[in-house]
Amino acid sequence: MLKSILPLIIICSPLASYAEGTIQISVKLTPAGSFVAKSDRLKGDLTRTGAEITSQKMSVSIDSFKTGMSLRDEHFYKHLGYESQPKALLSAIKASGGKGTGSLELNGVKKEIQFAYEEKDSMMVAKFDVNAADFKMPHAKYLGVEVNDIVSIEVRVPAPKK
Amino acid sequence: MTRMIILIAMFLAPLHARAYPQFIGHGYPSCMNCHYNPMGNGPLTDYGRAVGADGIASGALYPKSWSEEKVASLSGFLFRTPVQKHVRVQANYRGMEMISSVGTPSERWSWIHMQAGGQLILKFLENDRLTFVGEIGYNPNSSSARATGQDKRKLRTREHYVGYRIKPEVGVYAGLMDKAYGIRVAEHIAYSRILPELTQNDQTHGVMVHGLLDGWEGALHGFVGNLLQPRDLRQVGASAQIERQIFNDHRLGFSLMSSKNDYVKMLSYSLHSRLSLSDGSALLIEAGQTEKISLGSRGDRIGRYALLQTYTRPIRGLYFFTNIEYLKSDLSNDATTVRWGPGIQYFPVQKLELRTDLYQTRTFNPNASTQDGWTILFQTNVWL
Q1: CA B248 to chain centre
Q2: How far does the CA of residue B193 sit from the closest CA of chain A (Å)?
């Protein structure tokens, strides 16, 4: 069985890849400061067909994010609705020519997103902004320090080979 | 002469940690999230105390069943969560065992009460836009007073001011504060604090305007000297410090200060950088110069200093640091002093800091030969 599917895997491997990537969420604080929530547990399949890169689904566990401070981690998971939806999902991803679209499902809310991307050093790096209010997250504030609703997201995954 | 300055500084201006600019490594380039004074030092905000409990101090000694939220809830005064929002009381003690002239016949061990004080904070309006901060503390006998049998112990206030944030980005502060200048490193014996006269007891009455705008942060500070001092000693002038955020969490800054009293006119300027190395690690760099023009008699001089501090956080609660300093207290003189040494800073639980510093001081002077000086410090800092 393995012998029969091995050629198929070899033929198809340049076109599709199982991606394990990183996702960084840059969060700004008011009155000052910022932090980055980072996870290296982003998982999914990426396929290249001609000039287009697609993915049916990519996901990341909310509790795999680390912000550099345990209390902030706890607040972060709670704020992103970890208890009701433990994973953030990116689906229906289509990208070509440096731009792409997809759907982000978070906190029980699914919303279209647009992103810009570039390929360098065999990695695909996509960037987009998300407004937390669009995903029904309340404005975050803790002991006088507020979190800006709009956060910047950077996704970094191995690009499928051309 | 340089050596004498160092020795005097060691005894008169003992270490007195009040600000931790290295916490830029935790994603806090500005001091104002954690301190009522936006330029750092002094009483901590509720947020700052929670960050101290959960982000800075080790969590290893807490019961496994405790959540971080539980730990943060104990960060208030006397381990209690504040039940009202207008009044905050804080208290702290810092002392150290200093071993000076290590390994020489004049080696000496002495315990120094560096700081024992209380702070009262009153805060009003939405987002605590209006604050009153007052501090009073015990001023220990200096070594020179002890040597002459004098008792100069007394209570002393090092800050009392009112602050008003006109909007989140702009605030005005009036009262007794540290001057806005350079990096407020914890070490008041740092040459970057001694040469521009920014040490433990160099606060001044004045008005400071602080602002934040699109990656810029700065303060303009007009001051009239410490009004509790004799009039002829008061340094009257102004200072400015401005920082630019670069590459996300790093800061590049410039400071300028001009002041004079009846005896000396001073002009200081410096460049500094605070670099976040992520996960609590950081690099602090400052280089500056101070011109002191003597009024009425000869003795003008220009001094130069540089500071490099590295902080590495291997695990939560523990910091390894290295301090490297350069001083040329008089450019017309050949003597140059370099002081360096490693240290360990450990926060085993919230409200407790243990710190060890080792300093080697070497003076390079073609006209004289001086022995290296070795000093070891063991500090304990407790705050309630």
Answers
A1: 25
A2: 25
Q: Which of B45, B56, B68 would best serve as a mutation to test chain A binding (most A beta carbons within 10 A)?
A: B68
Neighbours of A112 (CB within 10 A): 9
CB of B121 within 8 Å of a chain A CB? The answer is no
Chain B residues 144-173 with CB within 8 Å of chain A: 168-169
**What is the reported pLDDT for B1?**
46
- Give A26 to chain B, closest Cα distance, Å: 10
Indicate yes or no: CB of A71 within 8 angstroms of CB of B29.
no
Q: How many CB pairs under 8 A join A and B?
A: 69
Tokens 């795999």 locate to A64
How high is the ipTM of this complex?
Answer: 0.76
Domains and CATH numbers, chain A: 22-158 (2.40.128.110)
- Are the C-beta atoms of B155 and B138 separated by less than 8 Å? yes
CATH C-level class of B2-85+95-111+161-383: mainly beta
Quote the tokens at residue B310. 């590295």
Interface check for A35 against chain B (CB to CB < 8 A): the answer is yes
Q: How far is CA B291 from CA B130, B197, B269, in A?
A: 37, 12, 9
B222-264 pLDDT, tens digit each: 999 999 999 999 999 999 999 999 887 799 999 999 999 999 9
The pTM score is: 0.85
User: What's the angle, vertex CA B318, arms to CA B315 and CA B323, rounded to 5?
Assistant: 125
CB contact under 8 A, B71 and A144: no
Instruction: Identify which of B313, B371, B343, B373 has the alpha carbon closest to the alpha carbon of residue B96.
Output: B343
User: Is the four-CA dihedral B158, B161, B165, B169 of positive or negative sign?
Assistant: negative
